[in-house]
TrEMBL record:
Protein name: Phosphatidylglycerol--prolipoprotein diacylglyceryl transferase
Gene: lgt
Family: Belongs to the Lgt family.
Residues holding a 1,2-diacyl-sn-glycero-3-phospho-(1'-sn-glycerol): 154
Lineage: Bacteria, Pseudomonadati, Pseudomonadota, Alphaproteobacteria, Hyphomicrobiales
Biological source species: Rhizobium aethiopicum
One GO CC annotation: plasma membrane
Superkingdom in the source lineage: Bacteria
Any coiled-coil regions, as ranges: none
Top-level EC class: transferase
InterPro entries hit by this protein: Lgt (IPR001640)
Length: 282
């Protein structure tokens, strides 16, 4: 537990304005820029993957660059709508039922990764069927680039001073403006590192080093498992949402853990399925 001396010797939160810049009455927030940066970088990387036939089964890419360009709009809608609806249903339903206008007040809460994942999955299934694209290959190409969005999104959470961590006395602790006069884990940066940088590098190593895209569904499974394990780990350092707190009378179980745990089984199933599908037939 942090001592009084520790709490008095903590680092202040970097004074970063959540508004990146303004154009007349229009304020451009870092959070919005993070979404744009994540989508654009993910799109550029996905186009690179789609253009490399040697990475795919039969040395033939499952989709064209034009199809990928068209999918960006679908993906953006899936992320935004699914992310917001997911936050409402998983974290803020009672408040929205009392005041429905809160549903569009994204500054009161935010977005849910699990909701965004669900929304994007639905968008992928519909788009793949309409364009005759192998569904697991589309899952794989999206899974390979999602860490870009996670990286920039978590950095934006840090800049906004939201989703901060639990009390701590570690030397890199931060005092967040909305977290009281206490030293807290910068858990947003932990997530940016694990869900963003580490997961991106692991998936890239599998794609280029082991040609994992030739086993449709394998990259998807690794991503789902990797995200779930990273999220569960960081939840031990992250303060739970105030309106939910800890679950089942514990002082450790959070909604993030509950939502992420089934993802491990789902990811393992996708990995095993991919290996069985591509295993040599005797």
């Amino acid at each position: 537990m942090p001592t009084a001396a520790n709490l008095l010797a903590i680092m202040p939160f970097p004074d970063i304005d959540p508004i990146a810049f303004s154009i007349g009455p229009l304020a451009i927030h870092w959070y919005g820029l993070a979404y744009v940066a994540g989508i654009l970088l993910g799109w550029a990387y996905a186009r690179r993957l789609a253009a490399n036939d040697s990475l795919w089964p039969g040395n033939t890419s499952p989709m064209t660059k034009t199809q990928l360009d068209d999918f960006i709009v679908w993906a953006a809608l899936g992320v935004v709508l699914g992310g917001r609806l997911g936050y409402i249903f998983f974290y803020d339903l009672s408040a929205v039922l009392r005041d429905p206008i809160r549903a569009v007040e994204i500054w009161n809460g935010g977005m849910s990764f699990h909701g965004g994942l669900t929304g994007t999955t639905i968008a992928m299934i519909i788009f793949a069927r309409r364009n005759a694209i192998p569904i697991w290959s589309l899952f794989d190409i999206v899974a390979a680039v999602v860490p870009f969005g996670l990286l920039f999104g978590r950095i934006a959470n840090f800049i906004n001073g939201e989703l901060w961590g639990r009390l701590t006395d570690v030397p890199w602790a931060v005092v967040f403006p909305t977290g009281g006069p206490f030293a807290r884990h910068p858990s947003q940066l932990y997530e940016a590192g694990l869900e963003g940088i580490v997961l991106l590098l692991v998936l890239a190593a599998l794609v280029y080093g082991m040609h994992a895209l030739k086993s449709p569904g394998f990259i998807t499974g690794v991503f789902v498992c990797g995200y779930a394990l990273s999220r569960i780990f960081v939840e031990f350092f992250r303060e739970p949402d105030a309106q939910l707190g800890y679950l089942l009378g514990t002082n450790w179980l959070t909604m993030g853990m509950v939502l992420s745990s089934p993802m491990i089984l789902l990811g393992l199933w996708a990995i095993l399925r991919a290996r069985r599908q591509t295993a040599p037939q005797l």
